[in-house]
Write a structure and sequence with these properties.
It is built from 2 helices and 16 strands. With 226 residues, the protein is mainly β.
């Protein structure tokens, strides 16, 4: 089907048809992409031709507005022919994305290329012993949270049953909370979706509370004198 420009009736009808037909590659179609919280990540389209007419970036729940350049407002913008950059990453950015690229082939016919991505967000935090640890990791796609703080992986939260320990809470803002952090809570925390894919990884390191350290040193000095 030969089409005119992007605003022609023929192009619009063909675009509407293509949007209703989602064909993904066989096997595991997702390209794994990882970025650090507050950093940026690039979803590469791997399309070298310059005859691109339009691109769409889609999550499981919405179509995301993609700015044409980094200068325009928003955290998501196009770079090069059709690469998409997401900057100032937050945990809720983690999940599956579909990039649809509409382009004209050598016969000036409109075609579509589909690339799908699994975006993983990681972060590192330090917590003092005895303080509250609040992690905003219970995003909408989260199904369970696991940690290896005890030396082996175990579930500490699930979507169906909530927290698995009296020392923890969750709230309506998507926070997983450890009420009073212990050295044994240090480790890696993974947030998984319903398919077992890792959405978020948080590495938690413990810090000695300076007040507790002074008390320990003081008691040791008294014991030495005695």
């Amino acid at each position: 089907m030969k089409l005119g420009g992007i605003h022609s009736p023929g192009w619009c009808r063909w675009l509407k048809y293509l949007e209703g037909v989602e064909i993904l590659p066989a096997g595991n179609p997702f390209i794994s992409v990882s970025g650090k919280k507050r950093g940026s990540v690039t979803l590469r389209c791997e399309h070298e031709d310059s005859n691109i007419v339009h691109i769409d970036l889609i999550t499981q729940s919405e179509i995301i507005s993609v700015c044409e350049t980094e200068e325009c407002r928003g955290r998501v913008f196009k770079e090069g022919n059709c690469d998409v950059v997401i900057k100032n990453l937050i945990f809720s950015d983690a999940g599956k994305y579909t990039l649809r690229i509409y382009y004209n082939n050598d016969q000036r016919e409109l075609e579509r290329q589909i690339r799908t991505y699994q975006l993983h967000i990681h972060d590192e935090i330090s917590v003092k012993t005895g303080e509250e640890l609040k992690m905003s990791v219970l995003v909408s796609d989260a199904d369970k949270v696991k940690t290896n703080s005890s030396g082996e992986w175990k579930e500490i939260w699930t979507r169906d049953h909530g927290v698995q320990s009296d020392r923890m809470n969750d709230d309506n803002d998507g926070n997983l909370i450890i009420k009073s952090f212990l050295d044994s809570d240090a480790g890696t925390y993974r947030v998984l979706d319903t398919e077992g894919e890792t959405l978020i990884t948080v590495t938690v390191r413990g810090e000695r509370n300076s007040y507790l350290c002074r008390n320990i040193i003081f008691k040791q000095q008294i014991h030495t004198k005695l």
